[in-house]
Design a protein that fits this description.
This protein is of the alpha+beta class and 423 residues long. 30% of the residues lie in helices and 27% in strands. Strand 7 and strand 8 form a beta hairpin.
Length: 423
């Protein structure tokens, strides 16, 4: 089989890395890819926000299967257009992807189908925000309605701050068009968990759970980012919790989308928080998370291609995945200034030395090859991941490897998995 993976980040590098292990795949393409992916696949230039650009790539290489990594092409309808042309593709349609592309749609959907989530209000003007804030205790969570690369969420300590943040989002000064509508939410306290399932539109089967670290700074301080690291262990959620999440969240979503005429096939990411009131949904993603995908796939001991095809062919089953009892950890190395302004073009050294650490895999995110060297080309630059017999071993290996990588302005959190290790 010929495979095409759409995207250019660490998630896509992990997908390419895992999928090419399948004996059924003989050639892998990635559009547009990055400086590391091009060692594992043939990278082709493409604009992931343009369905026409992606169709041109597909027409050129004629893949037997296309796998969509990021959210932007899903929201743009790449699955709809590929399917209309008879091209086999893995992922949800644009209508189904509204669970991610519109937070207001997702919140109203959860209300309609009685899926546990935080109290909320949807606002389209500063005056509506002012009126709604009366009904919220502080802190208040302010979310841009549209896609904002994981950076459209602000936890406001006061109502005045919430009003200011929401007004700036609505005016387009924070996340552009993504903030044309905002969602106010009650602030929930608890442990966050990323819970992913594979669906064929009717049946679901779970993947290994992970925990992301969204904040830029250690001890969960600073602004939200696209994700600064993640870990996955067999004990993150127990069997009873997994079954509860499938019954009371995942299946309700899949059934509800089908009832509303937007059948959901692909990966459904449920961003959860385990509160004193029980598990609550913070957000949905219509695809694999980043960087959660990296440690999750490093725990997968079975083939990944088969489950993707099962989703497309409507035959998902509980036996689609086989998971290791090992733990995995991932640390994201970023450019100085991220998630704000940052410089690119900085030479990266130490990649080979890091990859030689036992159990380590380095996935590229924002990199490119230039004059025979690997240089930085984004805010999140590299994902250093490791597998170990337990979380302590995985974390020790990941930081041993991360310390070997150098580029000007490199930054990473030193406390990924620290709360779990304390427990």
């Amino acid at each position: 089989m010929k495979l095409l993976v759409i995207g250019s980040g660490g998630r896509e590098h992990a997908l390419v890395w895992k999928l090419r292990q399948s004996p059924r795949i003989r050639q892998v393409f990635c559009a547009p890819g990055n400086g590391g992916i091009c060692s594992d696949a043939e990278c082709l230039p493409a604009d992931v926000s343009s369905v026409e650009s992606l169709l041109e790539v597909a027409n050129r290489v004629q893949p037997d299967l296309t796998v969509v990594g990021p959210e932007v092409p899903l929201a743009a309808g790449v699955v709809d257009e590929f399917a209309r042309r008879g091209l086999r593709i893995f992922g949800p349609t644009a209508a189904a992807a509204r669970l991610e592309s519109s937070k207001s749609f997702a919140k109203d959907f959860m209300r309609r189908h009685r899926i546990p989530t935080a109290h909320y209000a949807i606002c389209e003007s500063a005056e509506q925000v002012k009126q709604a804030l009366v009904h919220f205790h502080t802190p208040v969570v302010v979310k841009a309605d549209g896609l904002a690369a994981g950076k459209g969420v602000v936890i406001a300590a006061t109502r005045d701050e919430a009003q200011t943040v929401a007004s700036e989002m609505l005016a387009g000064r924070v996340v552009g068009d993504a903030g044309g509508r905002v969602v106010l939410e009650e602030f929930l306290e608890g442990e966050e968990v990323s819970f992913l399932v594979l669906s064929d539109g009717e049946r679901v089967t779970p993947l290994a759970a992970a925990q992301d670290h969204k904040r830029l700074g250690e001890a969960d301080t600073g602004p939200n980012t696209g994700g600064m690291g993640a870990y996955s262990t067999p004990s993150l959620i127990d069997d009873a919790m997994r079954d509860w999440l499938i019954t009371h969240i995942a299946r309700l979503v899949i059934d509800g989308m089908r009832q509303e005429g937007a059948e959901y096939r692909g990966i459904l990411y449920c961003g959860l928080i385990i509160t004193a009131r029980g598990p609550m949904v913070l957000e949905f993603n219509a695809r694999f998370g980043d960087p959660e995908t990296q440690p999750i796939l490093m725990r997968l001991d079975s083939d990944l291609l088969g489950p993707f095809i099962a989703s497309i062919e409507r035959r998902v089953s509980d036996g689609d995945f086989r998971w290791s009892n090992d733990a995995t950890a991932c640390v994201v190395l970023t450019s100085a200034g991220y998630p704000g302004k940052y410089e690119t073009g900085k030479e990266i050294r130490g990649l080979e030395e890091a990859a030689r650490v036992e159990g380590v895999q380095v996935f590229h995110a924002g990199t490119e090859r230039r004059d025979g060297k690997i240089v930085t080309a984004g805010g999140r630059v590299l994902n250093v991941c490791a597998r170990g017999q337990d979380l302590a071993e995985a974390v020790a290996r990941v930081y041993q490897a991360a310390a070997k990588i150098q580029f000007e302005g490199v930054y990473y959190r030193r406390d990924i998995g620290a709360r779990a290790l304390k427990r």
